[in-house]
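Quick one, tokens below. Sequence please?
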């Protein structure tokens, strides 16, 4: 990955690894980095780049693009997505190749003007339009809101490569080979799901529409704009996307607590024991103050059930729990069982807020709701255990 890498006939990976950014979108931690995958197709009559990379990686991207071009001119830049992690170098490419033509769709046009002041040399494509590079005929399919309104995918009808944009992408930089057969699934699946839950999952209904649209294509390879490139087994990622976008949870649960002095934590532990007593062994227990919400969202997406427990803080939810609730409401996964509990020492507030969350979430609530004064007594903990047991039984 330190150089342009041929990934199919006349097709090159010219992307970069970002191991410097602490966070994606200044929001989601990147302990394993992230890759911005960009590509170049060298046809017999014309050449095309598929997306660029994030601005700071200009030099590295440009030198790889030149390697792939091997002395040829760049004729087209296909803009699958205008988000700056892929579109950072559009203006620079135009200054290097003044005759460069941009390929986008109708929704790309205002964004291209807004971000880069580019209004000319834009060829607007619709679904099914083609571009012949000589030996490679590209076709385009819009996938609005995966991940922005102008998002589209590009399909090379000659090689069967789908340049899938953010769809099928994941966090995590390349650590050796670029392809699925050069790494292990255990290394990429969790980071792909964390990316899905945080970035794409809100639009799961559209993922279903897109999967149907793409099923008409004879896809051989899926090359996303982040993470692993799939050539050996594309069905493994298609089936993951199908499962995640249908909210088909695995038999497991996530228990998240917000606690300052440990009382609400002990309630959460009792919920976990109850889930386990029902026969469920896959349980993630998270302290909302100490685990980044992206990991909590990931596991909530993965499993069939979750429980939220919070102490009261200045009459409201404990702030880290409030942050999780608001992130969940923004991209609400469906078909989950939900349990809630709160604690207080004078005015109450946490449980009421969780009840409000439960109502807005439209999820199936499992009882009992538990509200504890100061520190949970044996009866309170037994209720929490019951809540866990009921969640476990619902899961099974
Ligand atoms: C800064 C602060 C604000 C709090 N605000 C409230 C409140 O508005 N209403 C209330 O009933 N309890 C309030 N409490 C009490 C906590 O909810 C109490 O610590 C909790 O019941 C104990 O749970 P924990 O050990 O899980 O933190 C507050 C505590 C702190 C430290
Ligand atoms: Fe994006
Ligand atoms: Fe992206």
């Amino acid at each position: 990955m330190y150089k342009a890498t041929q990934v199919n006939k006349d097709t090159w990976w010219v992307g970069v690894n970002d191991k410097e950014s602490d966070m994606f979108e200044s929001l989601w931690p990147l302990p394993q980095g992230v890759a911005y995958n960009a590509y170049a197709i060298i046809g017999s009559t014309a050449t095309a780049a598929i997306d660029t990379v994030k601005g700071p990686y200009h030099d590295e991207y440009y030198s790889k693009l030149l390697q792939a071009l091997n002395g040829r001119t760049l004729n087209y830049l296909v803009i699958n997505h205008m988000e700056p992690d892929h579109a950072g170098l559009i203006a620079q490419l135009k200054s290097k190749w003044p005759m460069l033509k941009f390929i986008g769709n109708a929704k790309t046009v205002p964004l291209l003007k807004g971000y880069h002041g580019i209004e000319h040399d834009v060829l607007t494509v619709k679904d099914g339009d083609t571009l012949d590079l000589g030996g490679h005929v590209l076709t385009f399919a819009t996938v609005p809101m995966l991940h922005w309104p102008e998002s589209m995918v590009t399909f090379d009808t000659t090689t069967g490569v789908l340049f899938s944009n953010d769809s099928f992408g994941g966090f995590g930089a390349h650590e050796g080979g670029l392809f699925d057969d050069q790494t292990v699934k255990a290394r990429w699946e969790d980071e792909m799901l964390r990316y899905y839950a945080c970035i794409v999952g809100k639009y799961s209904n559209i993922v279903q529409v897109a999967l149907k649209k793409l099923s008409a294509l004879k896809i051989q390879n899926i090359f996303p704009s982040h993470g692993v490139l799939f050539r050996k087994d594309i069905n493994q990622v298609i089936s993951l996307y199908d499962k995640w976008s249908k909210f088909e949870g695995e038999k497991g649960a996530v228990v998240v607590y917000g606690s300052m002095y440990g009382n609400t934590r002990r309630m959460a532990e009792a919920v976990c024991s109850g889930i386990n007593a029902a026969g469920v062994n896959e349980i993630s227990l998270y302290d909302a103050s100490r685990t980044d919400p992206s990991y909590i969202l990931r596991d909530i997406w993965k499993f069939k059930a979750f429980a939220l427990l919070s102490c009261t803080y200045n009459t409201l939810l404990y702030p880290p729990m409030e942050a999780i609730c608001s992130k969940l409401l923004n991209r609400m996964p469906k078909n989950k069982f939900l349990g809630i509990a709160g604690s207080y020492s004078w005015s109450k507030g946490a449980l009421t807020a969780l009840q409000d969350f439960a109502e807005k979430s439209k999820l199936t609530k499992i009882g009992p709701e538990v509200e504890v004064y100061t520190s949970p007594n044996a009866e309170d903990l037994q209720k929490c255990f019951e809540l866990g047991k009921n969640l476990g039984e619902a899961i099974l």
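The two ends are 44 Å apart (CA to CA). The chain has two domains: 5-245, 250-395.
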